[in-house]
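Structure ticket #2291
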Amino acid sequence: MRSIATQTTITTTATTNTNTNTGNVFLRRLRCSSSDAHQSDKKTRTAARRNGPETTTTGASSEEEEQQQQQRRHGDDFADDDDANAKTKMMMSRRREILTVLGALPASVEALKTFTFPVSARALTPNQTITISKTSEKMASSGYSFVNPSIDSMGFHALSDNKVYHNMATIDKEARGLVGLLPAGETTAEEVEMLRAKKSLEACGTDFERYKVLVGLQNRDEKTFYNLLRTNVEELLPILYTPTVGEACVRFGEILDRPRGLWVSLNDAGKVEKLVKRWRNEGVMIAVITDGERILGLGDQGANGMGISVGKGMVYAASGVNPEWLLPVQIDTGTNNEDHLKDPLYVGLRKNRERSQKYDLLLEETVFAIRKRYGEDVIIHFEDFAPRNAFRVLKKFQNVPGVVTYNDDIQGTAAVTVAGLIASTRIENVLPLEKQNVLFFGAGQANVGAADLFVRALKSRGLSDEDAVKRVWLFDSKGVVTTSRADFENLSSEKKRFARTESNNAYDATDLLSAVQLCQPTALVGAAAVPNAFSKPVLQEMAKNNKRPIVFALSNPTSKAECTAKEAYDFTSGKVVFASGTKFPLDSAAPQFQPGFANNAFIFPGVARGTIACKASSVTSGMFLAAAERLAKEVTREDLLVGSVFPKTIDKLSDVARAVGVAVAERAEKDGVARIEPGGNAFFGV
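Resolution: structure written out below.
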């Protein structure tokens, strides 16, 4: 696992590259905003050469100009002025752009802050503009950053700008016209603002209340939010993501507060490009898109699914990805959730889901509008689509040359599941991976994806495809998937691949206990969102057939888990190697067991970082297998001694993401999709 110091270096490199571009943008804006001033200065100097220095006035008396500046000092330039004309308003607009630059200069260039605020466009001479230009380049190469050029927040408006407002730690109060709008106390340190936020969290009684406080903080003061998240990942991620995000999606209408994402509905067909242009950030590199039809194990949440796209963005940010790179997207084509349709607080279209070609056309328009604005390297991350669309949509865009895409429910869950299986084999008396027989309870996108990647892992260890597939059983709502089932012809091609072909109906079973008795699996993986499916008899049967059975109850949220950690240990007399999709509280009666949890957060941020770093033209299955193999290596001996087959703490999530990212980029080169060789500066910048 990489050190925090290493990660800091990596992040700084990425910031430097971004800031260089930002500095250039500022330079262009500054030159543009000051062009009239340059022309005025040029005319003035020409007049001086002709008539002498006494004629170098601008026409307006210096006394009048000083009086006008006094009236607008300390940000009061937003006040209405009876004598204001179009020219004055234009100058005010230019001043705001200039102040955005000047107000962000660090102490090392304090000399440039000697101007009286607010600065008139005419106050900048060509030489001063050149100085600022050189300074911006110097700052960018040193890792500093200017305020985002798209931000032009002054006065009262700055209080509503979460990229500017930083509570008592807000800088440039005078330059931004905030004197009198904020308390007069001294500017505080970052740590003080984080302490203030922690106090608010401590006052909450439930995780849902804490979720609302954190989302409010993100909307109000982005800097404090991300500082708090990155220094308290272990504590806050379960609140911002699973399991609490499930409740947040169900109750999304109650907490709607300046929704952070792009909303695309059927009403926007033909106009999506305009919507994408309205998004504030210029450097988006990952778009997280959901249609809200299958949110965790909670089913169709319609437009409330935006909570999951936003939540994934928070996981990316906690894993070292720049928040400015993220774009959460909700595709709203209706919902079949009758409770939401009747709820007056529901935020989406009040109609049943669109199943016609209009759905596909809207999704295509959205993807290509995002790629048109942000470039062909932008990652399209599909999230929580229903099985009817998940595989189909993924394959569709994978087959479009140049589209960089993956589905986390299919591929991310697969990688984290296989990583857990690989890590389990390092525990005493657990069979090696190539001898594992896995019964997947639930044959949706998560388990079908996991079965496919498990087969790939076996083949990488020398098994043929035929032999590898024979080590898999799928169990869906009608029982074990076999070729003798009456509905076999109606199954998806993904399911058919794993249908058992044995004669005499050897594996026909419609209940899980019978399936375990017939198949005698060494590992049982649940992703069916059926609570208590792993009953006492099922778990006892697993323990009867194996010295160390592997049982993964992966369904989210906790209310949908197939069994609890305590049940798994109790009903197998402690023999089980257990993991869950949501972290269960430790059992004080059995402190020797500290099971890990199979969180996709260990996978998809690293896949994204590696993909971006090597500028991969696509994301291959091999890259996800490399992610799984690398994650398994991140599990320490200390983790395994307490029964955890995943890193026991997620505080080092950023380090894990980098390690996974390195492996992903190296595999991308091997698979022939990397456009930058791993090891270069561009790679280590992510």
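Closing remark: The radius of gyration is 29 Å.
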